Amino acid sequence: MKDISIAVHGGAGTILPSSMTPELEEAYQFALKTAVEEGHQILHQGGSALDAVEHAVRLLEDTPLFNAGKGSVFTKDGRHEMDAAIMCGNTLKAGAVAGVRSIRNPVRLARTIMEHSDHVFISGCGAEDFARNHGLTFEPENYFFDKHRYQQWQEVRDSHVFMLDHSHDEKFGTVGAVALDQKGHVAAATSTGGMTNKRFNRIGDSPVIGAGTYANNNTCAISCTGHGEYFLRAVVAYDVSCLMEYKGYSLSQACEEVVLNKLVKFGGEGGLIGVSKTGDIALTFNSEGMYRASKKNKEQTYVGIYK
Question: From CA 307, how far away is CA 291, in angstroms rounded?
């Protein structure tokens, strides 16, 4: 069997053992392990990298532990606005969505855009109409309610302060997945609920092709998590691919150059996951921690949280 690889992330930031109960840590580890192993099983059975990353991200969207889908944070007006993207490294086709509400799995909508429209990136009410036209699942507002997220919003709702994702400790809860399938194709997907108390329909890097999400069979697949404004300005995901394609960097060299050098120099915090066309995996971050998991071929599943 040819090499297969998959990695997932559930966000990065100031993630310390001191702020984690044993029960919560176990819950995070179980969710990450389940997502990566179910995605790996799709690859093992000959499924596509696209199917694997979409499935893994949907599982993470369906748990309130992460800031995506069900666990999305509250905006300034007490609602939930979600963004997502998916990209196929074989065709360079991509689908992305921003600022949608009530959609259970934004990553599914992103893939539907990629496969059933002439567009790459749509947003807001139009994207929701598109989702209805294609029979995607919507949920009532209370589906997205989480007491912990609500309390975080209550602390800042009457101010103009936005919280970098969902914590005073700067945790970026975006979720994502990257994979290499048996045919040698790579794919990436990313999904997020944005920033707590965000205003003006702010959009980060997650749904932007080349910034938070990118896949190219010639190089790699990348999914990012961090302070989106910096990742947008640095075009992080595409920059990693470019270093590999034009300078001959390995995946790990390219990820370290961008995340540990370029981003750090101008204050960008966060990380990324990547898989190369040869199946190498990178889990690179400059923050205190990153929720992450990976599995290659028949190797043991890796799950990590802290630095």
Answer: 10
The catalytic residue positions are: 174
Angle ∠(187,11,128) on CA atoms, nearest 5: 65
Number of domains the chain is built from: 1
Farthest CA pair distance, the chain = 57
pLDDT tens string 26-79: 999 999 999 999 999 999 999 999 999 999 999 999 999 999 999 888 776 667
**CA separation, residue 111 to residues 131, 140, 210, 232, 304 (Å):** 11, 22, 16, 21, 28
| Domain CATH code at residue 152 | 3.60.20.30
Query: In this structure, are strands 270-276 and 220-226 parallel, antiparallel, or unpaired?
Result: antiparallel
Please report the pLDDT score of residue 150 as a whole number: 53
